Amino acid sequence: MKFKSLKGTRDVLPGESHRWQYVEQAIRSVMHRFNYREIRTPVFEETALFARGIGELTDIVGKEMYTFTDRSETSVTLKPEMTASVIRSYIQNNLGEQLPLVKVYYLSPMFRQERPQAGRLRQFHQFGAEAIGGQAAAIDAECLALAMEVYRTLGVTNMSLKINSVGCEQCRPAYRELLQGFLSNVREKLSAESQKRFDANPLRILDSKDEGDKSLTARAPLMKDHLCKECADHFVELQSTLLAQKIPFEIDGRIVRGLDYYTKTAFEIVSTDLGSQDALAGGGRYDLLVEQLGGKPTPSVGFAAGIERLLMVMDQAKLFSGNEPHPFLFLAAADDDGRAWASKASMELRRAGIATELDLLGRSLKSQLKEADRQKADYVLVVGAAELAKNAATLKQMATGDHRTIGLSDLAAEINKLSS
RNA sequence: GUGUCCAUAGUUCAGCUGGUUAGAACGCCAGGUUGUGGCCCUGGAGGUCGUGGGUUCAAGUCCCACUGGACACCCCA
């Protein structure tokens, strides 16, 4: 084998593509129910957009981006997430001038050069939504409800929604100092990773997986208990809205999003059926981002969800009914006359909307029947010189083995009667 | 980027301490049934044993490197 797909990339093969289509179609239909419209942005952008949008100090920007210089010496990057691109497009196209609240969704490949593992690839796919232009907690709630509704629609149950508030520029600095004050007592005992985060991003120490860190921070102050009035009210309103909408959630004061732009609401949807990479979706509010990227101050919320992880969970819960696309009718040719007829008839049937297959390899009748079986064709019509002479042929229903004679003059109409 | 384990037909795997032409099952192709699938029987095709080096009289088997995979750390969807 000469060429192989690059590390951390995968082909979606013909035998599994219907699963993707099924899930994608479900996502689109939920999005439309919530009145979100699709936005498609280029797979690559100017590198600086992500550096500014996601945060220069994040791991994504620091060491995971696929960045290269194109032939005109421009530094470009394959999108590692969608929000920065969506906001860029929002500003560039003045979407906010046409609508006060812009609600968009996407379904797109993303690229991050990480070491692959369960539920993590270098090219992976996300769906997500952004509601740009409103600060009401009702919008946060709708965004969470939207994500949860996708999973509910698809039958995913083993998961939980965890919410938190990470505050805003009013209350976070003071809390940060409070936290650093608490942590400075135990700083030397923290894991090496957490010690590095002490200055850059102390909030992240709270969701360290290290057992030592966990016990050291067990009694650390949490942002949600030190919110300013506005953030606290917002968080309370979010909770009461979720309760009223009967969306189950739990508060997890240690959730901190890794991207720099989050304010107030932060959330994750976590699966109990996945391995270490158990987050199905994550997101939150980002009230400062639009302004940071050069737009007017525009409070916004959004989320992103991994499609491969969703597929894994659904696979485990056996949520794919397995109705792959298959031919409705297989035209089996008994001889050369039959072959010539099948070639012509297949086109008429296909034009009439009937999924039709025929033998293109010149194989024996027995092989054609086997092929029809393997393809899960509903019906097989065997045609040769004898049938053409009578202008009628035997139609066999594969599942039952039943035979019946059917006229060939208005075949498409006859076949269409069967499928209804 | 770090760590652990792994790499043999299309697929899942076997191949004992290195020893003659590398096997099985399933799948694929053909025939048994000269015009009817699934079951059964018979036959067939298919492998430079991930790649490159090394040790040895001899390497799928031992050693090294590389590449790729799985999982975890990190990070995140």
| Structure class | alpha+beta
CATH superfamily of the largest domain: Bira Bifunctional Protein, Domain 2
Rg from Cα? 28 Å
What is the mean predicted local confidence, pLDDT?
93
Describe, in plain words, how this protein is organized in 3D:
By secondary structure, the protein is an alpha+beta fold. It has 2 domains: about 240 residues, BirA Bifunctional Protein, domain 2, CATH 3.30.930.10; about 90 residues, Anticodon-binding domain (Rossmann fold), CATH 3.40.50. It has 16 helices and 16 strands. An 8-stranded mixed beta sheet has the order 1-5-6-11-10-9-7-8, sandwiched between helices. The chain is elongated. The model has no long low-confidence stretch (mean pLDDT about 95). The structure holds one RNA strand of 77 nucleotides.
SSE topology:
Blueprint: H1 17-33, E1 37-38, E2 44-46, H2 47-54, H3 59-64, E3 67-69, E4 75-78, H4 83-92, H5 95-98, E5 102-111, E6 123-132, H6 137-154, E7 159-165, H7 172-184, H8 192-200, H9 211-216, H10 229-244, E8 250-251, E9 263-271, E10 279-285, H11 289-292, E11 300-306, H12 307-316, E12 329-333, H13 336-351, E13 356-358, H14 365-374, E14 379-383, H15 385-390, E15 392-397, E16 403-407, H16 411-419
Parallel strand pairs: 1-5, 7-8, 12-13, 12-14
Antiparallel strand pairs: 2-4, 3-4, 5-6, 6-11, 7-9, 9-10, 10-11, 14-15, 15-16
Helix pairs in contact: 1-6, 2-4, 6-10
The chain binds one RNA strand of 77 nucleotides through helix 3, strand 6, strand 10, strand 11 and helix 12.
